[in-house]
Amino acid sequence: MPSTSTAPAPAGSTSAVSRPADAPCAVEFASVGRSFPSERGASRTVLRDVSISVKPGEVVAILGTSGCGKSTLLRIAGGLDAASAGRVLIDGSPVTDFDSRTAVGFQEPRLLPWRSVTENVALGLPRGTSKADGAARVARLIDLVGLGDFAGHRPREISGGMAQRASLARALARNPGVLLLDEPFGALDALTRLKMQDLLLDVHAAAPTTVLLVTHDVDEALQLADRIILLGRQDGVDGSTIAQEIVVPGTRPRDRGSAELAELRARLLDGLGIDRHGQARGIESTTAIPHFPY
Ligand SMILES: Nc1ncnc2c1ncn2[C@@H]1O[C@H](COP(=O)(O)OP(=O)(O)OP(=O)(O)O)[C@@H](O)[C@H]1O
Ligand SMILES: [Mg+2]
């Protein structure tokens, strides 16, 4: 993935944060389904028959309306939830429990307020990392996300975007084969969000890993992903499944204004049930749609 100009350049050698060339993992969702118990012993199907093959190092964005099961799918991939049907394989071996080959980044940074940025990032290091290796790795990651001058600060002393960068560094500290990101920039203002997108491209270039990115933001998906999976429900059938799969053309960083992307944007918005003016179809025009930030 090419680097971009607006994010901090990867600092010096990235040897301490790089994985071996073959280290990003393949992820296979094989007919994954998930149902949850509902009232009176019945069950409600949230996901149905989701099959996706993710190549090592690929960035796949998962889009879909609120409640369609995006986070559930991500949690299943990380072993934080279990599929009711089908399974997820990472590099051919099934995910059965919390999987140390994965790391998760959430919408909110979830930093420990009483610990410094350095200490928070170090929490992501795999067990058994030596003190010296850990310290070098944490320092390089903090540089990579542009927080070198804030390493000793507590979370309350840094901005929301900085906290989110620290959280990304903590996830990368594990050296994950698969990075699972659940709306990682969803709580940030529009400008910071764009900068974070560029940063993610730089981080991916410096420490290549497979990325599954859940987002509500069509433009973010078009900018960052190799491939976009749109989850949706078919009429009369319970549970979301793959409604559209789009291979995003061109290399990153992509021209946000290109006609090709505009066409894909329109297709995805249509698939999400949003008309060209940003209104959800079938919902009165006065209804706020906070989940669609475009
Ligand atoms: N542990 C659980 N028990 C019962 N229902 C659950 C559980 N986890 C998720 N659900 C239900 O599954 C559905 C999908 O939830 P999920 O969080 O995956 O949606 P989402 O697509 O990530 O939504 P959003 O875009 O709002 O984050 C929701 O209706 C939710 O209530
Ligand atoms: Mg979610």
Automatic annotation (TrEMBL):
UniProt entry keywords in alphabetical sequence: ATP-binding, Nucleotide-binding, Transport
SUPFAM superfamilies: P-loop containing nucleoside triphosphate hydrolases
Superkingdom per UniProt: Bacteria
GO MF term set: ATP binding; ATP hydrolysis activity
SMART domains hit by this protein: AAA (SM00382)
Cross-referenced PROSITE patterns: ABC_TRANSPORTER_1 (PS00211), ABC_TRANSPORTER_2 (PS50893)
InterPro entries for the chain: AAA+_ATPase, ABC_transporter-like_ATP-bd, ABC_transporter-like_CS, ABC_transporter_ATP-bind, P-loop_NTPase
Pfam family, one: ABC_tran
Domain ABC transporter: 27-258
PANTHER family registered for this protein in UniProt: ALIPHATIC SULFONATES IMPORT ATP-BINDING PROTEIN SSUB 2 (PTHR42788:SF19), TAURINE IMPORT ATP-BINDING PROTEIN-RELATED (PTHR42788)
Protein name: Sulfonate transport system ATP-binding protein
Organism: Mycetocola miduiensis
Lineage: Bacteria, Bacillati, Actinomycetota, Actinomycetes, Micrococcales
